[in-house]
Write a structure and sequence with these properties.
With about 350 residues, the protein is of the alpha/beta class. Helix content is about 45%, strand content about 15%. The strands form three sheets. The chain has a five-stranded parallel sheet, covered by helices on one side. The longest helix has 18 residues. The structure holds adenine.
Length: about 350
């Protein structure tokens, strides 16, 4: 079935998948409340010998949505089929996937906000009443067949909760938002990854990487591997504070975790648009980047860090952003904004 894809988009992630992704809920660090809620849902479904109710996971990229989907299937002891919104183009594709689902099996749809509307419409009765409608024959002979589906679980993941239609959102039994990880959890995640990869690292070196990983395990694991390269080539293989901090400087990740892309967004707002407000499309054009990338990848962390504000009139660089770059905060920015 070619609409089912396994693994993620980035080649490099595949090696992380094998080694670093936790397989069980108890190995998963952070997201405490979410873990607790999922743990209860799993235990309850197992006790009743039912499929887990449909789950929607949302939040910025790299926080563990795919990892959690895999964990859910392992904990339930069922098979997980993986696909993504853009890979399912036609209603026939989703009908084919759904009608082949076995009892209690799980279907993971990544980037579910990118499902075409006609495909989404097939999902409504599938999720609510476990059937799909299929039109056979044409013209006068056209008939609708309702095909019964097995008990299955849909796990949807999205970086854009607001782009999901209300009817689709409402059909998930539980909806969970993944949060950025705090410093302590990031350190634990890096420590765990270092152990699995047999990397020797001082606690201070781990702290350095954690501070600059923008609360995101995927970033932390990538930086850990790159810092290891520096430690292997320029040092004795051990990640010390000194090695970590000079490697991260060379990788152009600054002391709060901002990288080249973040700088481009913030500097454009400050230097080209007087601090804003400025529309995201205008920023995108100014830095030659997709507006979706700005909204999905850069903006959530800049908002979380208090470097960027989102107003109805557009994006605004905050006083903290000005301070970060050593610019003086303009007087007019101090005025209360009128919306
Ligand atoms: N690797 C990536 N994310 C993780 C997490 N939340 N817990 C443990 N290991 C991880």
């Amino acid at each position: 079935m070619d609409r089912i894809v396994s693994g993620k988009r980035h080649e490099e992630d595949l090696s992380f998948d094998v080694n670093l992704r936790p397989r069980h809920l108890k190995e998963y660090i952070g997201q405490t409340l979410l873990k607790e809620n999922l743990g209860i849902a799993i235990a309850a479904a197992k006790k009743r010998d039912e499929a887990l109710d449909h789950v929607l996971l949302y939040g910025p990229p790299g926080l563990g949505k795919t990892t959690l989907a895999n964990i859910l299937s392992v904990e339930m002891g069922v098979n997980l089929k993986t696909t993504s919104g853009p890979a399912i183009e036609r209603p026939a594709d989703i009908v084919s996937i759904l009608t082949q689902m076995k009892n209690k099996e799980m279907l993971f749809i990544d980037e579910i906000h990118r499902l075409p509307r006609v495909v989404e419409e097939v999902l409504y009765p599938a999720l609510e009443d476990r059937f799909v409608s299929w039109v056979i024959d044409k013209g006068l002979k056209a008939r609708t067949m309702n095909l019964k589906l097995k008990q299955f679980t849909l796990i949807g993941a999205t970086t854009r909760y607001g782009m999901l239609s209300a009817p689709l959102r409402d059909r998930f039994g539980s909806i969970h938002r993944l949060q950025y990880y705090n410093q302590e959890d990031m350190e634990l995640i890096i420590e765990r990854s270092a152990k699995l990869l047999k990397i020797k690292a001082d606690i201070e070196g781990i702290k350095q990487i954690a501070t600059r990983s923008r609360g995101t395990p995927r970033v932390a694991n990538r930086l850990l591997k790159r810092v290891r390269d520096y430690a292997d080539v320029l040092g004795d293989g051990r990640i010390s504070t000194k090695i970590a901090s000079s490697a991260l400087d060379k990788l152009q990740v600054d002391r709060v975790g901002l990288d080249v892309g973040d700088h481009m967004v913030l500097r454009a707002i400050i230097e080209k648009f007087n601090g804003g407000p400025v529309g995201v499309e205008t920023i995108a054009a100014a830095i030659n980047e997709e507006s979706d990338t700005i909204v999905e990848v850069y903006e959530p962390f800049l908002l979380q860090s208090g470097l960027l504000d989102r107003t109805r009139r557009g994006r605004v660089a905050t006083r903290r952003a000005y301070d970060h770059y050593g610019y003086e905060f303009p007087i007019e920015q101090n005025q209360p904004k009128m919306f």
